[in-house]
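Journal club prep — side note

Before the paper discussion, L.F. wants everyone to see what a predicted structure for a comparable chain looks like in token form. Sequence:
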Amino acid sequence: MQGAVSLTDRGDVKIHTYTAPEQGLLVNTHLIELPTQILAVDAQYGLPYAAEVAEYARSLGKPISRTYISHEHPDHFFGAAVLGAPIYALAEVKAAIDAAGDTMAANNHAQYGDFVPSSAPRLNHTVEPAETTIDGVRIEFRRARDTEAEAILNVALPDHGVIVAQDVVYNRVHVFVADRRFEQWTAALRDYERLPYEIVLPGHGAPAGRELYGQVREYLAAAKDLVERAESGEQLKASLIERFPDYRGEILLDVQNMYLFPASPAA
């Protein structure tokens, strides 16, 4: 297996977190193992890593009954069809993928070939913030606004003290700040810190606890200053690596620079 799996054991519910290697942007797929089924949260960027997730899920002896996509960035949904389950997302996330997903996939496929799909997976269903019960387990769906993306779906387990926060938080991985929502994101982190969830599962990096909120706030404060002062993508990348030398995910800084410092059009 090229990716790594960590286990969060909460008794009758276990969450298996698959983290892709650097080439796969260190993105997480969380497999929430319920008594008779599995809920997947996000589905990888690279198809080989999505296939590893599917193979690992099969080893648990339970079907993936639903795949939830947290937001419309390609590293979270390109591999969804590989998991073979109905795909759910917030209505605005589904609309964004329906509108631009095929173009994203075609552009990435032109550059990376069959490592990624040539077209986007089709999302079947929408989900709204609410509490429900699946397989006897209480599930809370939350919508985070104006953090890394305009809207991010969180999946929480109130009776088990766990929130799958996805890209609201990272864990010692360079944070994608291309949309420059520094103030809004920081405010959201303070709100999330007050939630009654002691285990926090990030979109990139290993599961941890509430300390991730402060960690990301620190990163955002530094990144805001460095983005404002940077004159080039190379300078910004070097500055962030110097400021956070033990962080992984330098490849995310390269992706980020394509948005923060787009190439000038040819004369």
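L.F.'s comment for the group: The longest helix spans residues 91-112. Keep this in mind when we get to the figures.
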